[in-house]
Amino acid sequence: MMKTLNSGLKALLVGAFAGISLLGFSATATAFETVMVDGVQATRIMIAPPRNTLEQTIRDGLRDAMAQAPSGRAADDASRLYYFYGARHFEPLWLTETDDGIVFSGAAKQILAVFEDAYLQGLDPNDYSIDMAKLDAAAGDPAALASLEAEFSAAILHYANDAHTGRLDPRSVSGYIDLASKSVDEAELFSAVAEASDPATVLLSYHPNHPEFIALRDLLASHYAGEIEDLPPIADGKLIKLGMADPRVPALRERLGLATAQTAPLVYDAALAQAVEAFQTTIGLNPDGVVGPATIAAINGANGATRADIVANMERWRWMPEDLGTFNVFVNIPEFRLDVNREGRSVWDTRIIVGTAKNQTPLFSDMIRHVVTNPYWNVPSSILSAEIFPQVARNPNYIASQNMELIYQGNAIDPWMVDWSRASPSMFRVRQKPGTSNALGQVKFLFPNSHDVYLHDTNARYLFDRSMRALSHGCVRVQDPFGFAEALLQHEPSLTVASLEGTLGGSERWFNMDQQVPVHLAYFTLRIDPDGTVKSFADLYGHNAKVIEMLGL
């Protein structure tokens, strides 16, 4: 059997797939054969002739496309596809001829089963549907059969792309999402599917293999099997404190296993507050008995969340890099948590503070390269314009009161020497000097990026006691920065926590890491622990809701 027709064939034959790249098909892997002529190595073109009308139709369509294609990429695509099929007699992969006529091949039937079960993978089977009636209608019509073959290949490529890269462009969800794009190698896909004894397994391998993606997929299957009930989520709203009346109280009592109150059923009483505190303790929240966004999200997810939430989180796993790194730092923004992972397991974790909804922490992956002690804080231009400049214009002493320096043309200047009525923020830089009042604390961890975001200490550690910790201008504050340094620098023999601490209190010091460590700033509102515990977190920035909306869930 030949490798395949890809989605481009239909474009070339009937114009229905214009714009889909065929560059994945390499001529060197198909239509050329090295031979020996009089002891000299030579290459000859091996175009295998069609053996039946269907193959001839495919050949003629591809040949015409080569002749009619404009120069450049379109011509390259057409020629590569022609040679791809030419090495295989232009034989289709998904259609085969039997005594009963032309039918779908065994490989095609396996793939059709994958399409039908796409919902179990968090995908929509309707996106890959093949109208089986078309096969009967195309009987005796080689052009129609060739078109059907192309349609089938297009569905395979569509499925593989959705499985591997997701159905949405991450940047269409939010401008704060800056994850590296991924792609499917078409030639590799179709070669593997065509040559496999179990093509369905090959296609399914394009789904992420991250343990948490697999756990979410298993959770989704439990929903479809009827093992988990999709309960309506408890709505967000104002904080609920002891003694307050709220219409959500009966649902809270039901979720936490308490009987309906006989009197004052809408009142948040002591028994319910005690149950909430116990739940908060088990889920890792501050056990204050107050029901806020974090507690609501955790309760909603405790029963397995909804199918829509599961599918939306699976979608975001598809956006993540295939390889997170054997040793990596993983920041989950909605969870307010940083993990240092080794071989897929957390070996150290700490609380974090992330950006507000207005100043969101972006989603991206990078490499931690430097550790800086006694850091200057170079104030971002947005903060300078919106917050500091108005203060200085009213009172030039503000700069000194915040242990800051005003920088003009590379030099520190006295704010009293500036005519602030005629100045603009773009003329200056402001940086906060090292010290106990510095917003970055004593140490920061750098992975240079266009967002100017990094991990750092803070001079306001009391904020880590809050359950809702979306409080920064976008950078990630780490509760235990030197504990993090110890976990991070395991492979740095010349750089230790002791050596870092020995520099504290002085001038700014930079240390380069010999082994750069992958860091991932991610956004998952559902996490599943290795023991199967489902944890749900508030949708701080609305990314989850937007994914659900865009996927039509």
Keyphrases for this structure?
about 550 residues; alpha+beta; 8-stranded mixed beta barrel; 4-stranded antiparallel beta sheet; 19 helices; about 35% helix; disordered N terminus
Brief summary:
The protein has 19 helices and 19 strands. With 553 residues, the protein is an alpha+beta fold.
Describe this structure in words.
Strand 6 and strand 7 (345-355) form a beta hairpin. With 553 residues, the chain is of the alpha+beta class. It has helices at residues 7-14, 53-68, 73-86, 106-116, 133-137, 142-165, 170-173, 186-195, 199-204, 211-224, 249-255, 270-283, 293-302, 307-319, 381-394, 398-401, 481-488, 497-501, 543-550, and strands spanning 32-37, 40-45, 95-98, 101-104, 327-332, 337-342, 345-355, 364-373, 377-378, 404-408, 411-413, 429-432, 443-446, 455-456, 470-472, 476-478, 509-522, 526-528, 534-536. Residues 1-31 have low confidence and may be disordered.
